[in-house]
Structure formats: structure tokens, C-alpha cells
Amino acid sequence: MTLQTRPGHSNRPDPAAHIKLVVSDMDGTLLTPQKQVTHHTLNAITALRHAGVPVCLVSSRPASGIEMYLEALKLDTPYGALNGGSIFNPDRSLRSQLTLPTDIVQEALGLLQEHNIDAWLFRGHEWVITNAASPYVEPESRAIKQTPNIVPTFKTMLAGVGKITASSSNYDAITQQEAEIGALLKGRACVAQSAPFYLDITPPNANKGYALHQLADFYGIAPHEVACLGDMNNDLPMFKAAGMAIAMGQATQTVKDHAHFVTAANTAEGWSKAVTEYILPRAAKAD
Predict the structure, then answer these.
(1) Among the four 99, 115, 138, 204, which has the fewest Cβ within 10 Å?
(2) Are residues 57 and 44 in the same domain?
(3) How confident is the prediction for the chain on average, in pLDDT?
(4) What pTM does this model have?
(5) Which CATH number fits the domain that encloses residue 11?
(6) Contact indicator for 162, 195 with CB cutoff of 8 Å
(7) For residues 232 and 196, what is the distance between their CA atoms, to the nearest angstrom?
(8) Which DSSP symbol is given to 109?
(9) Are residues 196 and 112 in the same domain?
């Protein structure tokens, strides 16, 4: 069996005995590296539905990048975009939205420019970039099925920003900026990697832990009755908020250290295995 319990952490309670809601990351977790959903994952979602356990998605993706999967997944549940800064109802109407103050946007963009790191802005449903030649623009456009708005400068785009994404093929630079910008903007913004090549900057409360609380509240469920699955550092806030946290097999070591359990990688049906091994047995006790 590829699943395993994590090393014990004395400051973390035992995993919840009863699970009534699942909140899941998408890229690196629910989806394969090819951005596909396997039939095992679909079967696991169906099994959860039959057990009366809804599945909600929370992603650093914009809303369009989540909505493109809802029909295939047969999900009619609320979801969180932009790392949880934008929460949407099942009918896709906006439930709540958090944005960055313009001075924070300007400061963050200046810091990234100093290190020659490309920046993108997400404003509502709009994706704004200045460098169309960035190596990650085309794959991101394919992944979220959205075309960016290319502008010469961000000067008139600073208001209403829900997320800044920094992208670079220099993974060490992204990790370094997570620490440096995180320290400079501490308390004023949430700074976390969503991929080895992406660094997300969102409003201080716009994180997946906030989203988990909002989604649990939608169903009248306590956070300790929620199981979550993820693989990157931007998943840590929901790991801390949930009653059960499950890390993917290829997750960062930090994420694994904060999980109750580690499942297989997203290349080896880790999501469906986690549901079968850990969540469904506890879902049967949810009533």
C-alpha cells in the first residue's frame, strides 16, 4: 500500500473521526499532470456523493479554470478561486470576494520587477499580463482555457486585483521570493507557492483556510468535520483548518509534515486512494 500515516506532530490533534465535507486542491491533487480526471477519481467522487459527502474545489486558478471541470466531475457545489479569495455559489454567482489594496499591488510588482520575475494580475474574471513571451503563459492559457489581456503596463490595472502570480523557470528564485516577499508583506498579504514555478500573492485572508471555513459554513458543517487534500504550500492554511489533512505523494516535504496522512502521487491515483482509505470509512460515521 502506498498510503502512509505522517510522522506524529505533538501540536496537531488526531484526524477527525467523522467527515461530512471534502475540500480539494486541483492541480497536483485532483488532476493528473496532464490536467485530466481519471475514472478512479470520478468513481471516488460518486462514492462520496452516495455517502452524503459533498466535494468542493479550492484552487489558485481563476473561476474559469475551475468551472471548466465542474460538469465532467458532476459537481454542483460551491468553490473557491484565486486561492480562496473569491468564493462562488453552486450556480456560479459570486458569494464573496477579497482584493488587494492598490498600494500592496504596486509594492509587490516593484519587488518582482527588481528580480526580473514575470508578474500576472487576476482581476475578477480577467487575467492581465505584460510579457506574452513568458514561458508559462501558453501552458497556463491551455490549462485554464482563458486568453490573457496583454497590456504595456500595469499602471491602470492596480484596482480590484484578487491575485498576483509571479512565474519563473528559476525555481530557486520563486522559493527565495516566497520568503523575502512574504516577510516584507507579512500581515498585509498572503504569499505562497502554488507550484514550483508560481508564487501567489493574495489578500491576507484570501487563503485556502479562509475558503474552507466559508465552504463549511455554506453547509452548516464545522471545520473539524472537513477533510482536505493538497500538495503545495498554498494548501497549508486549509491543512491547519481541516479536521483531516491528506498530502499527495509528490507534495513538498513541508506539506507532508503538516498532513495527517500521505497518499500516493497524482500520477498513481493518490486522490481516489485517499478517499477510499481514509475518508469513506469516516463518512459512514458522519451521521
Answers:
(1) 138
(2) yes
(3) 94
(4) 0.87
(5) 3.40.50.1000
(6) no
(7) 9
(8) H
(9) yes
What total number of domains does the chain contain? 2
Cell triple for 215:
465552504
Asked if residues 83 and 194 have their Cβ atoms less than 8 Å apart, the reply is: yes
Query: Which CATH number does the domain housing residue 125 bear?
Result: 3.30.1240.10
Could you tell me the pLDDT band of residue 65, with boundaries at 50, 70 and 90?
A: very high
Dig out the grid coordinates for 273 from the structure: 486512494
Report the run of H or E that residue 148 belongs to, with start and end.
none
3-state secondary structure (DSSP) of residue 97: strand
| Chosen domain end from 202, 225, 252 | 202
Q: Are residues 116 and 31 in the same domain?
A: no
| Domain identity same for 91 and 211 | yes
Q: Rounded CA gap, 56 and 254, in Å?
A: 24
d(CA 53, CA 215): 13
* pLDDT for residue 8 is more than 80: no
Which candidate, 121, 80, 107, places its Cα nearest to that of 238? Answer: 80
Identify the residue whose cell numbers are 496532464: 34
228-243 exposure pattern, b = at least 16 Cβ within 10 A, e = fewer: bbbbbbbbbbbbbbbb
All cell numbers assigned to 212: 474552507
Same domain, 21 and 37: yes
Residue type, 151: V
Query: Domain check: are 179 and 91 in the same one?
Result: no
The b-or-e profile of 18-45 (16+ CB within 10 A means b, else e) is ebbbbbbbbbbbbbbeeeebeeebeebb
The domain containing residue 181 runs over which residues? 102-202
Q: Which residues contact 183 (CB under 8 A, 6 or more apart)?
A: none
The verdict on 213 and 189 lying in the same domain is no
* Alpha-carbon span 71 to 82, nearest angstrom: 20
**Residue 234 DSSP class:** G
Q: pLDDT tens digits, residue range 114-141?
A: 999 999 999 988 999 999 999 999 999 9
